[in-house]
């Protein structure tokens, strides 16, 4: 090639490279701000390095908590795909396979990355997590607990999911109030906060749909439902007691059981076509009777996505634990309006229908046995959408 030709080529190459600078135009590549959240995460993620590590500490099997089989399997199935898509490393830990005196050491070995989020829903793990959060020699992590009470004075690394079961109760109450003939309804719940909130919501939904309806709130202990015949006899007796108390000649014909698989024998014993029922906190499909049945339940498969989507808002990937000398834990303070200081302890996280963690199953199973009352499915869908949009606000306590 001639020298003049080579010079010409270099000139035009240099001019093309400088053109964006000369005309003041930006280079034509996709802006960081216009990328979808998942694309931004993938671009920001160092090659081969997870954005976070997630430990699911699985509760042990327990005949008193048969719903764990559903909760654990649903969480695990969703976690595999959700955390992989978010760039998080997912790992399951079975502490119950180790002696209790080894739990601390096992968890200390597991907490070898930063940031790490630890999740469980077993109340016996709560003291362990609170203790781990308060030791300065252990790598900081965010702990997320569900279905277990935690004292508000625990470490600020502890996060507690508070399921708004009152919203599920509202759906159940509104549904059953729309189909009851006698106007007498009942709830069967365990004697805990979950059951109390469900009953409170049930009453509000019931009176919203039918103001003159009555509610019999039956509470029991988990240990009362061990043994098929005994549990059926107990719940049948309690229901009969309520019918005698009403003394109106029309017995309870609609009830909501929020006691999980432990109450399945009782639900199966209910007379077909004379009773309407809702079931929770896990979905129920295989009760082969003619009762009108639906489920309102806690969908553990929605928790991984909820945690990923809200990780920044909740500070899960930036755990901050101020410490003093030795193992002394100082309070965490944040400046409130006006410059006052307010201590920060356990973070309580309300989770409701709008978060994709609480749900209902519809009536597809019941349709095989009987026709649905007109408008029932539409009413349930309306209340669901209204609660999600906060057009209906459900209280966690019974109205006074």
Q: Give me the Rg, rounded.
A: 28 Å
Q: Summarize the main sheet.
A: 6 strands, parallel
Low-confidence spans? 1-47, 322-343
- Report how far the terminal alpha carbons are from each other: 95 Å
User: What's the helix count?
Assistant: 12
- Compute the average pLDDT: 82
CATH superfamily of the largest domain: Response regulator
CATH first level of the largest domain: which class? Alpha Beta
- Spell out the helices and strands N to C: HHEHEHEHEEHEHEHEHEEHHEEEEH
Helix content: 25-40%
CATH architecture of the largest domain: 3-Layer(aba) Sandwich
Helix-and-strand structural type: alpha/beta
Strand order of the largest sheet: 2-1-3-4-5-13
Number of domains: 2
Task: Give the topology.
Elements: H1 3-23, H2 37-44, E1 52-57, H3 68-86, E2 88-93, H4 103-110, E3 116-120, H5 126-133, E4 142-146, E5 158-163, H6 165-177, E6 184-190, H7 193-209, E7 214-220, H8 228-246, E8 254-257, H9 264-269, E9 276-279, E10 292-298, H10 303-309, H11 311-314, E11 332-335, E12 341-344, E13 347-351, E14 358-360, H12 376-388
Parallel strand pairs: 1-2, 1-3, 3-4, 4-5, 5-13, 6-7, 6-8, 8-9, 9-10
Antiparallel strand pairs: 10-14, 11-12
Helix pairs in contact: 3-10, 6-7, 6-12
């Amino acid at each position: 090639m001639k020298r003049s030709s080579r010079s010409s080529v270099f000139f035009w190459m240099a001019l093309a490279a400088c053109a964006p600078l000369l005309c003041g135009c930006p280079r034509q590549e996709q802006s960081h701000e216009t990328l979808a959240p998942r694309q931004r995460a993938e671009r920001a993620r160092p090659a081969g390095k997870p954005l976070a590590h997630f430990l699911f500490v699985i509760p042990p099997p327990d005949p008193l908590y048969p719903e764990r089989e559903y909760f654990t399997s649903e969480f695990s199935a969703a976690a595999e795909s959700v955390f992989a898509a978010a760039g998080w490393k997912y790992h399951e830990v079975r502490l119950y396979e180790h002696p209790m005196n080894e739990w601390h050491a096992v968890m200390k070995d597991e907490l070898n990355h930063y940031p790490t989020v630890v999740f469980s829903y077993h109340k016996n793990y709560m003291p362990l997590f609170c203790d781990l959060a308060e030791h300065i020699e252990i790598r900081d992590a965010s702990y997320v607990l569900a279905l277990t009470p935690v004292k508000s004075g625990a470490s600020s690394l502890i996060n507690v999911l508070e399921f708004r079961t009152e919203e599920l109760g509202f759906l159940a109450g509104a549904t059953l109030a729309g189909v009851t003939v006698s106007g007498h309804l009942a709830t069967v719940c365990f004697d805990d906060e979950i059951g109390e909130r469900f009953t409170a919501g049930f009453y509000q939904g019931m009176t919203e749909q039918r103001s003159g309806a009555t509610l019999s709130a039956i509470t029991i202990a988990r240990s009362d439902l061990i043994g098929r015949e005994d549990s059926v006899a107990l719940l049948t007796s309690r229901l009969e007691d309520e019918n005698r108390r009403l003394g109106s000649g029309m017995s309870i014909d609609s009830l909501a059981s929020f006691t999980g698989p432990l109450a399945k024998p009782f639900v199966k014993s209910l007379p077909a076509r004379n009773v309407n029922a809702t079931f929770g906190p896990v979905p129920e499909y295989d009760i082969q009777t003619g009762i009108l049945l639906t489920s309102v339940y806690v969908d553990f498969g929605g928790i991984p996505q909820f945690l990923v989507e809200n990780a920044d808002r909740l500070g899960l990937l930036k755990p901050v634990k101020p410490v003093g000398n030795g193992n002394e834990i100082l309070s965490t303070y944040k400046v409130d309006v006006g410059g006052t200081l307010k201590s920060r302890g356990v973070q309580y996280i309300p989770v409701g229908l709008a978060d994709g963690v609480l749900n209902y199953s519809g009536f597809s199973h019941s349709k095989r046995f009987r026709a649905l009352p007109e408008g029932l499915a539409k009413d349930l869908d309306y209340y669901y959408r209204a609660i999600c949009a906060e057009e209906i606000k459900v209280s966690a306590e019974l109205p006074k």
